[in-house]
Design a protein that fits this description.
The protein is α/β, with parallel strands linked by helices and 227 residues long. It has two domains: 84 residues, no CATH class; 110 residues, Alpha-Beta Barrel (TIM Barrel), CATH 3.20.20.190. Helix content is 25%, strand content 9%. It has a four-stranded parallel beta sheet. A two-stranded parallel ribbon has the order 1-2. The radius of gyration is 22 Å and the shape is globular.
């Protein structure tokens, strides 16, 4: 592996990710993921419904599976008590409610809760990324613009519209592009000025692939203040 998932290891260049799909999702803890994958391969992996069955419901009422798998797996029945007993995996929170196969496919886009730019720099985990709401992103730009740019040299960030935009309007994406944010999410259903700017910007590459940030926004020996 040229780009291992470990602290200090850089993200792979976009050119090496051609014809590949990146999945952005939280991963299970390594030991939990390994255990659940093994259970799944043995046909013993069961995911409990998040909604508990009503107390008056019949105990014989079948519970529909949460996940359907097209690949054939070993059939396990409750009657095969001598062979094996289905193991129930009980999740403790929504962030861990992920199928082990999906978890194992997450690599270079692992979302984490943002703490601070100093904490992110100290951890130096390039494949960790954070999402910022529009107001939060603007606040960080106003208070720590240079640190925000440096953060985006090392790892990815995603900006999304404020929940107060009930009419699906958009913010000006250029503000966050200037800080090097890689994923600036907009409401594509609204063809306003911000959306037109977005469409115009990516006309440079035919609305396909990516646009390379300027040299001074990528090099660690350069400092750039977007303001």
């Amino acid at each position: 592996e040229d780009y291992p998932l470990e602290a200090g290891a850089p993200l792979p260049p976009p050119s090496s990710l051609k014809r590949k799909i990146l999945i952005k999702n939280k991963r299970l803890k390594p030991e939990v993921e390994k255990n659940e994958l093994e259970l799944f391969r043995q046909g013993q992996f069961v995911i409990e419904d998040e909604e508990k069955e009503d107390a008056n419901a019949s105990a014989d009422r079948p519970i529909p599976p949460d996940i359907s798998v097209e690949a054939p797996v070993a059939e396990v029945t409750l009657g095969d008590a001598d062979t094996c007993v289905p193991t129930t995996i009980v999740y403790t929170g929504s962030t861990t409610n992920v199928h082990p196969w999906l978890s194992s496919m997450v690599n270079y886009a692992q979302p984490v809760k943002f703490q601070s730019f100093d904490a992110a720099e100290q951890k130096n985990i390039h494949h960790n990324m954070s999402s910022f709401s529009e107001p939060a992103g603007l606040n960080w730009l106003k208070t720590q613009a240079i640190e925000f740019v440096n953060y985006n040299k090392r790892q990815m960030s995603r900006i999304y519209p404020s929940g107060a935009r009930a009419n699906s309007s958009n913010y000006m994406p250029q503000v966050f592009w200037n800080a090097g944010c890689q994923m600036v999410s907009l409401n594509f259903q609204t063809s306003d000025l911000p959306m037109q700017l977005n469409q115009g910007k990516f006309e440079y590459n035919g609305n396909c692939g990516y646009l390379l940030k300027p040299d001074f926004m990528r090099r660690h020996d350069r400092t750039f203040d977007p303001f």
